[in-house]
Amino acid sequence: MAGREAGNPADDTSGAGVPPAPGHPTDEAPPPVPHQAGSPEDKPGPGDGKPGGEAEQADAPHPHPHTCTCPVCPRGTRAAHREAQAAFRARRDALAAGEGLPAAVSYSAGASRQWISDELTQAAREVGARARAEAEGWYVLLWRRTLYVVWGTVAALFLGQVATAFTAGWTAARTAGLLAALLGGGLLTGAARLHGRRGGVLAPVIGEDNRLSTSRAVAALWVLLTAYAVLVLAGRLAFASGDGERDTLIAGLDLARGAGLVTVLAVTCAVAVVVRRVVAVRVQGQRLQKAQAPRPRAADLLTDDSGRAHFADTQYVLVSAVAVVYALVRLARRPDQLPDLPWGLALLVLVSAATYLASKYAEGSRPVIHAVVRAREAGDLDGPIRTGDDIEIRGAGFLPPSARTPDRLARMVVRIGAVHVHVPLVPVPGGFTNPSDTTLIVPVPVEVEPGKAEVQLVSAAGVETNKVTIEVGD
C-alpha cells in the first residue's frame, strides 16, 4: 500500500491524528461523534429493542441536508476521518524528523522514544474512533444503494422482456418471470430495511470480520437462482388453464430434472457453513490471525485479508458465476421446469467448491518467536541482558495482514516475566521501523527481576506467541 516504509508492512493510511472536527454548516454547536458518551445515539429510541428498530433509525428523517459535513452525517464522518489521517501522517513525519520534541525528554533516547510512542498511540486511537464512526455512516448509505441494485435488476429484466416480446410475442412465462422478480425484489427490500445498519441486502453475506464472505456470497447466488426458478414455476402454475399444462409444470419440479441444481445448491450451502465453522475454530484456537476490516468491499470476494488476489476465492466465484449464467439461460429457454444443470457443469462447480474448502483448511498460522537477543547500538559494548537494556525479538507473523493499522500496532504487548511492556512505535517518514512483521524492539523495565524470565508476544491481532526464556542479569 502507499505510504509503507520499505521492508515494513505497516500500513500508514489508516492512521490519524487529533484534528478538530469539521465545522457544522450552521452557527449551532456541532453534534458529538456517533456512539460516543453523551451522543444522541446512546439514548433509547422508540425502535430500540424491537425487530424494526434498526430500520426505523435508518429511515429517520435527518435534520441536515445531504451535503452536510457535520460529524454526525455520513459524509461528515468520512471527511473527519480523512482529515485525521492527514494530520496523523503529518504528525508522524514531524516526530520522525525530531520536530516538536519537548526539551524535558530530549536528553534521553529512551525517554524520547517513549514520549513519541505515547503521542502516536493516542493519535492512532483517535483515528480508530473516527474510522468506526465513518463505517457506521457508510452502512446507512449502503443499504439504500443495495436497493437501487435490486430494483435496477428488476427494471433491466422488464426492459429485456419488452424488447424481446416484439419478435417472439408476449407469453405467460414472461408475465410469471416479471411477477417473480417483483415478489423477490419486495422480499429483499423488506430484508434490507430490517438490516439497514448492517448493509441491507448484503447483511447475510458479510462475515464476522466485516468482510464480504466468498462462501456465503456464492451460496446466496445459488439460493436466489433456485428461489427465482421456483417462483417462475409457481406463477406459471397459477395462470395455467388446462390440466395438462398443470401436470407439465408440476413435473418440472421432479428431482430427475433438477438433480444437478439441487446438488450444487446443497454443496455450496454446506461449504458456507463448514467454512464459517473452520474459521471460527481456528481463530478461537489462536491458529489463525484475523482482525476486523474497516468495512466490506466488493474486492473481498476475490482477495485475501491483505488485499492480494486469492486463487481459491477467484476460481470459486468465476466458476459459480458461469454456471449460474448457464442456468438462467436454460430457465429462459425452458420456463416450465427447473434449470436442468448438466452433470458435467455441476461436477465442475463441485470441484471448485472442494478446492475453495481445502484452501480454508490449509491457510492460517500463528505468530512465532524464533529468538530473543540483546539489542546493541553502534559503539555499545557486548554483554548480557540487564534491566534498562533493549531486547530484539525475532520471529514471524507479528503483523498479520488484517491488523497493520497504527491503532492495532499500538496494542502490541510483550510479556517479560510478570511485566507487560507495550511495544513502542518508532516512526520514520512514510511508516514505522518498529514494530515490523519479523522483528521488534522493547526495553527491559526495572520491574523485571534478575534471573530467568519468559518472553511472550501478543500480536497485533491479539494472538499469543510461543514463550522464549531469557536470562536477565543484575
Automatic annotation (TrEMBL):
Q: Record's superkingdom? A: Bacteria
| Positions of region (Disordered) | 1-64
* UniProt keyword Lipid metabolism present: no
Alphabetically sorted, this entry's keywords are: Membrane, Transmembrane, Transmembrane helix
Q: Which residues cross the membrane?
A: 148-170, 176-196, 217-239, 259-279
The answer, when asked if Disulfide bond is one of the entry's keywords, is no
Question: From start to end residue, where is composition biased (Pro residues)?
Answer: 19-34
Give the protein's recorded name: Integral membrane protein
In its UniProt entry, the species of origin is given as: Streptomyces odorifer
